[in-house]
Amino acid sequence: MRPIVQSKKLQNVRYDVRGPILVEAQRLEAEGHRILKLNIGNPAPFGFEAPQSIVADMVTHLPDAQGYSDSRGIYSARTAVAQYYQSRGLTETSVDDVFIGNGVSEMISLVLQAFLDDGNEVLVPAPDYPLWTGAVTLCGGTPVHYRCDEENGWNPDLADIEAKITPNTQALVIINPNNPTGAVYSEETVKGLVDIARRHDLVLMSDEIYEKILFDDAVHHHTATYAGDDVLCLTFSGLSKAYRVCGYRAGWVMISGPKHLAEDFLEGLTLLSNMRMCANVPAQHAIQTALGGYQSISEYIGPGGRFYEQSKTAWRLLNEIEGVSCVEPMGALYCFPKLDTEMFGITDDQEFVIDLLRAKKLLVTHGTGFNWFEPDHFRLVTLPDVDMLTEAIERIADFLATLRR
Question: Most buried by CB count within 10 Å: which residue of 38, 121, 203, 228?
Answer without folding.
Answer: 38
